[in-house]
Amino acid sequence: MPRRTSRTALDRLRTPGRLTGFLKAASICVLIAGLLSPLGQAAAAAEATAANDYCGSQCSDILPPGENGNATLAQILLNQAFGTQPDHAEDQLGPYNNLAKGYSTLTNATINTFFNDASFGVASDQVASTLNPGGRTDVTIVRDKKTGVPHITGTTRYGTEYGAGYAAAQDRLWLMDVFRHVGRGQLTTFAGGAASNQGLEQQFWRNAPYSEADLQAQIDNAVASNGTRGQQALADANAYLAGINAYIDASDSGRYFPGEYVLTGHKDSVTNAGTIDHFKITDLVALASVIGALFGSGGGGEVNNAISLLAAQEKYGVTQGTAVWESFRERNDPEAVLTVHNGESFPYGTKPATAAGQALPDADTTATEPLIYDATGTGADQSASEASATATANALSSARRGMSNALVVSGAKTASGHPIAVFGPQTGYFAPQLLMLQEIQGPGISARGASFAGLSMYVELGRGQDYSWSATTSGQDIIDTYAVELCTDDYHYLYHGTCTAMEKIEQKNSWAPTTADGTAAGSYTMRVWKTKYGPVEYRATVGGKRVAYTTLRSSYMHEADSIIGFQMLNDPDYVKSPQTFQSAVQHINYTFNWFYVDSTHTAYYNSGDNPVRATGVDPEFPVWAQAAYDWQGWNPTTNTATYTAASAHPNSIDQDYYISWNNKQAKDYTTAPWGDGSVHRGNLLEDRVKTLAAAGGVTRASLVKAMADAALADLRAEDVLPDLLKVINSSTVTDSTAAAAVTKLQTWLTAGGKRTETSAGSKAYANPDAIRILDAWWPLLVQAEFEPGLGTELYTAFQANLPIDESPSAAHGPTGAHAGSSFQYGWWSYVDKDIRAVLGETVQGPLAQKYCGGGTLSACRDLLISTLKTAAGKTAAQVYPGDDLCSAGNQWCADSIVQRTLGGIKHYNISWQNRPTYQQVVEFTSHR
């Protein structure tokens, strides 16, 4: 399988792309023979005793491709040359993949054909190895035969966390090292200057340009603000670091460290010269800043909002233009699917009656603030420029893609009377995976589940003794854009009436070719200008005054604060009920939806530090950086403010069911990303779970089936295509090409509208022509439906707020094409509302006017038929043009999921599924 495909965001890590050529020039057998040093410790019979497990063997989980994310140089060479896999590097990929065709016959008894048994402990006959890391007697790491997951048991708190750090380094050392450098804006210097690496470090450093002092200050603040728990978190982190560094030393002296260190020039394979730097506590904050930015920082996009609003007002006039803009924004759409669906209102981010302090840019004056200076060599070429532009767009967008889902059903609706959950984060597909599985048992800690590599001192998503929890990204707005008025020059601004110098923060990077990354030498300086209102992102004029637009995020300089909430979630003496669960996640300042189940109850809570804004401030748009419009209680020195009360966050206990797929949380609760309208991928879960709950008797198998069925659904086909065909079939279709296309689409709909293989492993879709036609038709019909009415300028501006499509084969999300996660952002709600309006159907929260065919059914029908004929005439090679992985026209391959290489080990691509990466299936049978 080719090692590289088109990439964006997280996939921007350059991996051993030159390895094939390197292998051709080397004697593989000689190399491997010389490099076969100890690859692990000897297995020994042992048994970890299950500690207070109340799940009754009904907890399961899965995390592809496999637990082992480290590989020696010898193992990398074998993989690249012959496709062999290190133990436990790929053994969860097959079961995960097989669910796509195996779910239809699923029973409770066969769930663990597709998932792991997530019970506590390891049976004595399933122990693969035991280890007392560092020779310590207060901690043991047991690994099971099936998956190699570490089961860490400590008799002291220090030993337990030391073991967690050691196990993390065993499984993810290279990946952890990569991401501490991403968080510090130093990836190119560490891993190579590929354009993809440049883009990745730029995307994250632009919004979190922390100095070493900044990183340390966040630790000091988190510890000082949280009393005994803060002190415990610091002790845990230091023990965890000691374990990581012990493994670094052991693997270095034993020469079984990850081979990527050799391929990137940090170690010499013959002499062992070179070093692997020890981890320090500020590295953990750098890692946390990357994860928080990816999955837990809702907001931003205010400048793009302003540009599209001004375009709408220019097209229609202020009053009508504002109405058109609001109808597309769908802040509080009455047809949107909700997680809290009992009608309870949680107002946040709502439109004020009269906006105060608004600072919209003058027409055609907005320019993005440059990040890159003094670029040389490959830091200044065309590829670098393109990567930088993409990174900037991603960093400044309100859309956070590729997230997570949850299906939770109350015991009142299940066959057993116990709640059931199927949930997990959709974090993309990587090799090694960003997350790692582990079980931790020690004083004050009792949990199994997934944690981000390098932050695994606690289980972040998983199960405790008698409860389980998970999260989805929520996206409520905790980022605001301020217009700081400039004074003196471009680098001074008015702060509360005083001309104040901006702070210049720089990171200088340079690189040279290595075996892993042959990119020629280059360098650049990343430069951010920082104000008390955050980093400068744009410059413009407002009413003729020169301004810089800055972004202020409530979690900025608070990346470490959430550690307390995760510590509580792992503490069996703290979480004993839905209420104590909600209390724990209230300590997490990232924007997440949290779900909980035990043997009796379910619960939900939306976390994040939601700032209380000044009266009249509309969070959708930039606001003047003046005291009257600051967040209430804002202290710029500490970046703290008054936050909305816990009770004001969407929350619930024992609702009949909950679903979440990054949809709207509750009535009147506005999220920053656009697209919370009548059609959202959350509907795919809502429709299925609502039906199951209404019938009652829900089982683990039936809930997994609902998730898996939704994972193969084409949202456009299921929720929009029927109305499109209703318009087309309002009169007899006489054109033979259009009629044939309609027949194919209708046949596909009748079969369920799924993107699914004809049979397991066939690598060919059932109803391939219909899928090809819809993929080709959607962008054509959207443009033909809306551009004539909106005009090109406004139509283009709205696309900056919300992309038109996000099909499985498109390059989208944090990982580009082959990413799995699909249908999160698109114009399906707009098409749905407009088509229903043209059909004369009732539409709650309609668009401000009708667009398709100018609002007449006959003209709309003509438009749809015309674009459908064009789409039907496109060949598979035109619709799926191919890439480094797939030949042109290979539809299945275009959709397929790739475990994107963040190291030297590669894996096969699997059939498309739109589901969490790490996933739990849980039903507790009893409670403490």
Structure description:
By secondary structure, the chain is of the alpha+beta class. Helix content is 34%, strand content 17%. The chain contains 27 helices and 30 strands. The chain has a ten-stranded mixed sheet with strand order 3-4-5-12-13-14-15-23-24-26, covered by helices on one side. A hairpin with a 3-residue loop joins strand 14 and strand 15. Helix 7 (195-207) packs parallel to helix 14 and helix 21 packs across helix 22 (768-790). It is globular. 60% of the residues are buried. Residues 1-49 have low confidence and may be disordered.
What order do the helices and strands come in, and which of them pair?
Blueprint: H1 19-25, H2 28-35, E1 59-62, H3 73-82, H4 93-102, E2 116-117, E3 127-131, E4 139-144, E5 150-154, H5 157-183, H6 187-191, H7 195-207, H8 212-224, H9 227-254, H10 260-263, H11 281-295, H12 302-316, H13 318-329, E6 345-348, E7 367-368, E8 372-377, H14 382-396, E9 405-409, E10 420-424, E11 430-431, E12 435-442, E13 445-452, E14 461-463, E15 467-473, E16 479-487, E17 489-495, E18 498-501, E19 503-511, E20 522-531, E21 534-542, E22 545-553, H15 563-569, H16 578-585, E23 592-598, E24 602-606, E25 623-624, E26 651-653, E27 657-660, E28 667-669, H17 682-695, H18 700-711, H19 715-719, H20 721-728, H21 736-750, H22 768-790, H23 792-801, H24 828-838, H25 857-872, H26 876-879, H27 891-895, E29 900-901, E30 919-922
Parallel strand pairs: 5-12, 6-28, 11-29, 16-25
Antiparallel strand pairs: 1-2, 1-30, 3-4, 4-5, 7-21, 8-20, 9-10, 9-27, 10-30, 12-13, 13-14, 14-15, 15-23, 16-17, 16-22, 17-18, 19-20, 20-21, 21-22, 23-24, 24-26
Helix pairs in contact: 2-3, 5-9, 5-11, 7-14, 8-9, 8-11, 12-13, 12-23, 15-16, 17-18, 20-21, 21-22, 22-23, 22-25
